[in-house]
């Protein structure tokens, strides 16, 4: 009999603990539901603000496109930095006659430091090597063990 009473006591204790847990879970459910509603409200608010900012940015972009920057018609930086005689001399030295090669040569001959040249087909590389000879150090980013040291020209392809 005593054993049954002990078992009954244990069951009542367990039932009481279950009720406490269910009560706590109910409170947590309410809190989580409230947090969920708050989070949804914040997401909605942020979405509205984002849309408003996007519209404002689009308006600003449209206004910036309307602003015209004064610019001299027919301005050509290559013709300001070099002349036809020099370009012809470069072509006779082996520089290809395309526009990009002429622009690269202009940059190379007018820069004070180390130029970064765009030469995807390596057309100007031969001309640069022949022009500057053994004083030239060329680094290509594809070169194995490439380290950036003091160089006189970079050829990027």
Automatic annotation (TrEMBL):
Signal peptide: none annotated. Residues 89-145 form the Dynein heavy chain ATP-binding dynein motor region domain. GO terms for molecular function: dynein intermediate chain binding; dynein light intermediate chain binding. Residues 2-74 form the Dynein heavy chain coiled coil stalk domain. Residues 1-66 form a coiled coil. One of its GO terms (cellular component) is dynein complex. Keywords: Coiled coil. One of its GO terms (biological process) is microtubule-based movement. It holds the Pfam family AAA_9. This is Uncharacterized protein. It comes from Alligator mississippiensis.
